Amino acid sequence: MKRILLAVCGLALAFGAGVLAADDAGAAAVKDKLAKALGVAPENIRPAAAPGLLEVIRDHDFAYVTADGKWLLRGELINVDTGEHVTENSRRADRLAALKQLGAANLIEFAPAPPAVARYTVTVFTDIDCPYCRKLHSQIADYNARGIAVRYAFFPRTGLNTPSYDKAVSVWCADDRRKAFTLAKRGEPIPRKLCDNPVAREFQLGVELGVQGTPMIYLPDGDVIPGYATPDDLLAALQENEQQTKTAAAALKPPG
Q1: Interval 117-170: pLDDT, tens
Q2: Cα–Cα distances in angstroms (integers) from residue 242 to residues 146, 167, 217, 238, in the given order
Q3: Does the domain at residues 2-83 carry the CATH identifier 3.30.960?
Q4: What is 98-249's CATH topology?
Q5: Which residues are marked as active site?
Q6: Which stretches of the chain score pLDDT less than 70?
């Protein structure tokens, strides 16, 4: 949200005292002007669920602007009648899109061994050295036994070009990434290697998504569990999440 608020200063400079009336071209012109002033792509400005508001997405931050471009609102948009958390639903979709763009090929996956199949797949931002990240990975067989596949993205909490970052790069560049990952999580030394790798990109995405600690667990619908969860607790959360998704989909289904 801070990034959007900083951009609002540019909006004021570009359009004076905050008055941005729709011109003859209508809403499309307002949208284009907002896009330029806030530094976002036009497709990241769209009608919000609430009539008369536009939803603005900038670097995974969300805000709302009145349709005339005059007023910007920050905060959570909630449908009072239904209890739907509109902004959080938008965040979930945005997180999923970002993780999809990152690509499964750039993640290290531990899945149930065939013939077993994963019923759920979660993405975990992890730090090689964090104690609870290590605890989670020490139980990876238990997560897999419950039908949960875990895809790891690197988030070295100490930042880029630090020992934790270097370990993550070495894991990625290892001949056997999964083996190197497990050894590193046990605190065992692994050969230092360099190669093209996604570690910096994953770290930056984590920053943009608001990751402040690890592990950070992303569920299949984009919901988040901040911190460690036992295999049983994670399975229960996934089952509850799945049921809520089915209920919400049934509520949106037209009658008949």
Answers
A1: 999 999 999 999 999 999 999 999 999 999 999 999 999 999 999 999 999 999
A2: 15, 35, 15, 6
A3: no
A4: Glutaredoxin (3.40.30)
A5: 127, 130, 133, 157
A6: 1-27, 251-256
**Closest residue by Cα to residue 93 from 50, 136, 46, 126:** 46
CB 64 within 8 A of CB 56: yes
For residue 28, CA distances in Å to 21, 44, 51, 71 come to 12, 13, 16, 17
Chain centroid, CA 231 distance in Å: 22
What span, in angstroms and rounded, lies between the C-alpha atoms of 41 and 34?
Answer: 9
Q: Which amino acid is at 48?
A: A
Q: What is the Cα–Cα distance from 242 to 161, expressed in whole angstroms?
A: 39
Entry pTM: 0.81
User: Which sign, positive or negative, has the C-alpha torsion 125, 130, 134, 136?
Assistant: negative
Take residue 200 and report the two structure tokens written for it: 């910096």
Q: In this structure, what token pair is assigned to residue 180?
A: 């190197």
Which residue type sits at 170?
Answer: S
User: Kind of pairing, strands 216-218 and 120-126?
Assistant: antiparallel
Token digits for 212? 């402040």
Give span(s): CATH 3.10.450, the chain.
2-83
d(CA 171, CA 179): 9
Q: How far is CA 103 from the centre of its chain?
A: 13
* Span(s) in the chain for CATH 3.40.30.10: 98-249
Terminal CA-to-CA distance of the chain, rounded, Å? 42
Q: Are 107 and 153 in contact (CB under 8 A)?
A: yes
The residue assigned the tokens 């065992």 is 188
